[in-house]
Amino acid sequence: MKLICKLNNLNTLNELAPYIHGVLLEDIHQIEKVEALGLIPILMLDQMMFPKEVEEYENLILKIAHTSCLFYITDIGLGHLLKKLGLIERTIFDPKTMITNHLDAEIYASYGFHALGISNEITLKDYKAILEKTNIKAFYQVFGYRLMFTSRRKLVSLYSEKIQKLISLDNLSIEEATRLGEERYPIYEDQYGTKIYRNHLICLLKEIIDLPMEYAFLDDMLISSSSFKEIVSLFYSAIERGDISSLLERLDKLKLPISDGFSYKDSVYMKEEF
Amino acid sequence: MVELLAPAGDLEKLKIAILYGANAVFIGGLRFSLRSRASNFTIEDIKEGCAFAHKHNAKVHVTCNIVMHEIDTEEILEYLKELEKAGVDAVIASSVTILKLVIENTTMAAHVSTQTSCTSQETIAYYQELGANRVVLARELTLDEIAEIKDKTNMELEVFIHGGMCVSYSGRCMLSNNMTNRDANRGGCAHSCRWCYNLYEGDERINPDGDYFAVSSKDLCAIEAIPRLLELGIDSFKIEGRMKSLHYIATIVKTYRTLIDDITMGRLQDFNIYKEMMSKAENRLTSTGFLLGQPTIEEQLYDLDMSIPNKDFVGIVLNYDEETKMATIEQRNHFVPNSSLEVFGPNHTAIISITKIYDKDHIALDAARHPRQIVYFYTDYPLEKDDLLRLN
Q: In whole angstroms, what is the distance from residue A216 CA to residue A231 CA?
């Protein structure tokens, strides 16, 4: 199992390097730095690709094909492009919601992907069943805020225009006004559109030993550098030592807003209505 | 010729959609379908629906577009075989497993659901290599992007032209699941995107009192885009809404049928005429979505109560006796004697006046007030079975 981090604060990279195996990057100029530290650079191409962007993506990919970097994608169209370019075996395909059973996982694996992102919407029991029934290498988020909504629309900018008030795109969150109470969901907007995240962190520290996976992914979004260093250290220790009781005490001290997500709770299918 | 593809939540809607001009309908079976609250079809219903459709030279597509969890994977092939036996023409799916099973084990066409968010020619190429016959394009594409894709593929393309819009990339939204534990990707969407939100910068609420931050989109209405889409040679125009009413389906289908036929025959009228036809059905506010470019605030739905209800649909004609001039009507909304009604049929429209309404014992009624009550009135205008009646 390899620990992979996405770091919004790359200044912490040198300190974290002894505990992690790779880094998810948005900037191709960081690839060399990551390689120099002996880590696996993974370039995040996690946008949907539109017709006019195909050539642009192709040029970008070819420009860095000579490096050791892996490619992290969420759009099967990019997968097709990477296959044409002979790079499918360096590609991690994570369609977020789509890989929820072993049959689909096997078909995607047979396409040649290096690893597959398993859906966050299934239980850990289902997750394990998929891994037991296939030989896939899994990529799975074990710490951080999980994405739950992606839109091509620039929703914050549109609302800013609607209320005729300038809104900074930093540090925004939304709260459902009439039903759910004071739960805040982080919301981000960039050139590609809008993303909304869960209001609680996922943290699979106590489960990590029993979860088969190639890449355990940790995201530092909205986590202080000091807390994130501690988190990485905890996961590293859990994998190295296997004994997590003292680690859980250290985790509690961080007082992070953690919830299990769908780890133990299957979502409602509403089968009874059939 | 382009296929006009309509939704149908039950057999009656399926028949009406076809009679009012749809070349194909899409329906959900009792299993593996994404609209768990739609009144889905049994295999027997599907069989009857296919027989009716084929008799009228129309096709039936069945949605099997859930994202299957481990527990859902059992018996899928048996189910697909049952659909094939029932006469289904195509299966719409997002799971690569379901698509492959359809391709390799049945004679049905495999259509790639919009849940896969197909946004480029590369995505289409992936599904073409898998063996799929058609791709339903993502609703995030502009007309120019659709044109570019069309130029670079020979795959059959289906484009949404009317109905509800997911504001998230379809199939990638977990709002409902995270907020209510109802999984949109398994048919349980709670439409959390249509709720009211406060927007915060740090701890400060930004939105003014009562002016909520909304992520919801207006519904799609592609009337203005139809000429270009026809010109591009798109294979199928899709109307969304398996949970919509019979009157809605008849009205929307007939409007687009008229528009497509008018363009094809070189007699296109002012777009407002088609919009007026459409406005007689209950509708939420509409926009052109992404078709004419990146959405502006005009495409967003900020006042979430701004739907346009319509109770004008009063009944459906079951029979008309040309000798006695008596019409037999199934009531759908309250109406009274001495009313002016619009007759809205697959092939004709007219305005009629009715003076008296009778029950089955020929007793005059002061109103037709009971849902699905069978009532009678006299009219010289020759009504046809399945004509719809609405208040004029």
A: 13
Q: Work out the angle between the directed axes of helices B11-19 and B43-55 (0-180°, nearest 10).
A: 10
Flag if B297 and A176 touch (Cβ within 8 Å): no
Query: Band of the pLDDT at B345, cuts 50, 70, 90?
Result: very high
Cα A189 from Cα A157, distance rounded (Å): 8
CB contact under 8 A, B198 and A174: yes
- Choosing among A45, A46, A48, which should be mutated to test the B contact, i.e. which has the most B CBs within 10 A? A48
Looking at residue B306, its pLDDT comes to: 57
Selected residues 190-229 of chain B with any CB under 8 Å from a CB in chain A: 192-193, 195-202, 206-208, 211-215, 217
Quote the CA–CA distance of A219 and A223 in Å, as a whole number.
9
Distance CA B215, CA A162 (A): 12
A150 touching B (Cβ < 8 Å): yes
Q: Report the alpha-carbon distance of residue A114 to residue A92 in Å, rounded.
A: 6
Option in A78, A126, A176 nearest B69 (CB): A126
User: Does residue B30 contact residue A274 with C-beta atoms inside 8 Å?
Assistant: yes
Instruction: Measure the CA–CA gap between A130 and A137, rounded to whole angstroms.
Output: 11
B42 touches chain A (CB under 8 A): no
Residue B304 has pLDDT above 70, yes or no: no
State yes or no: pLDDT of B300 exceeds 90: no
Residues of B in contact with A120 (CB under 8 A): 174
* Strand pairing class (A115-117; A91-93): parallel
B342 inside 8 A of chain A by CB: no
ipTM entry? 0.94
Check if A175 contacts B (Cβ < 8 Å).
Answer: yes
Residue-by-residue pLDDT tens, chain A, 274 positions? 999 999 887 888 999 999 999 999 999 999 999 999 999 999 999 999 999 999 999 999 999 999 999 999 999 999 999 999 999 999 999 999 899 999 999 999 999 999 999 998 899 999 999 999 999 999 999 999 999 999 999 999 999 999 999 998 889 999 988 776 778 999 999 999 999 999 999 999 999 999 999 999 999 999 999 999 999 999 999 999 877 889 999 999 999 999 888 887 877 665 333 2
What is the predicted pLDDT for the residue at A271? 39
Q: Do A78 and B148 touch (CB under 8 A)?
A: no
